[in-house]
């Protein structure tokens, strides 16, 4: 910030930056936990044998007969995937999740946090302007609007705002440096 700027402006920029970083850090931890849960769930199911729908029905019917004869409720039967194709797709998904979790873990361990100011969606639209139905100028306008903004922290109890931004009852706005 320049020497002419208010400390409130500088405080707002610092707070906004810290908030974005904290949110990204929380999201990174959440993504890592989600990936670990998915890895565990898929791994468990991959360990089970592949059973088609017909095989599952047959096994469930046999268990129902055994349970009725023993005077108990049928046991819950765990099944793997329904086909070799689905099993293969889940193995590939598992490999992808493990690689993603490793990257997230290494980033977390190194203290790296990835942030896209303006939003990941807008960044993706820049790479695919035709699909988004935007020209480069239209995209840039949205990008700058999403990244821009102004404000000031502190003095919320002051009449008509604070010493940096004041909104008069008549609708006027006063910005001070």
What are its keywords?
single chain, 177 residues, mainly alpha, two-stranded antiparallel sheet, 6 helices, 62% helix
Shape: elongated
Q: Taking Cα atoms only, what radius of gyration do you get, to the nearest Å?
A: 28 Å
Largest sheet: 2 strands, antiparallel
Helix content: 55-70%
Distance between the termini: 11 Å
Which residues sit in consecutive blocks of at least 5 with pLDDT less than 50?
A: none
- Average pLDDT confidence is 86
**Strand order across the largest sheet:** 1-2
What's the tally of helices?
Answer: 6
User: What share of the residues does DSSP label as strand, in percent?
Assistant: under 5%
The tally of beta strands, per DSSP, is 2
Order of helices and strands: HHHHHHEE
Which structural class fits the helix and strand makeup?
Answer: mainly alpha
Structure in a nutshell:
The chain is mainly alpha-helical. The protein has helices at residues 7-46, 53-70, 84-110, 120-127, 129-132, 136-147, and strands at residues 165-167, 173-175.
How is this structure best described in words?
- With 177 residues, this protein is mostly helical.
- The protein contains 6 helices and 2 strands; from the N terminus they run H-H-H-H-H-H-E-E.
- The protein is 62% helix and 3% strand.
- The termini are close together.
List the helices and strands and how they pair.
Blueprint: H1 7-46, H2 53-70, H3 84-110, H4 120-127, H5 129-132, H6 136-147, E1 165-167, E2 173-175
Antiparallel strand pairs: 1-2
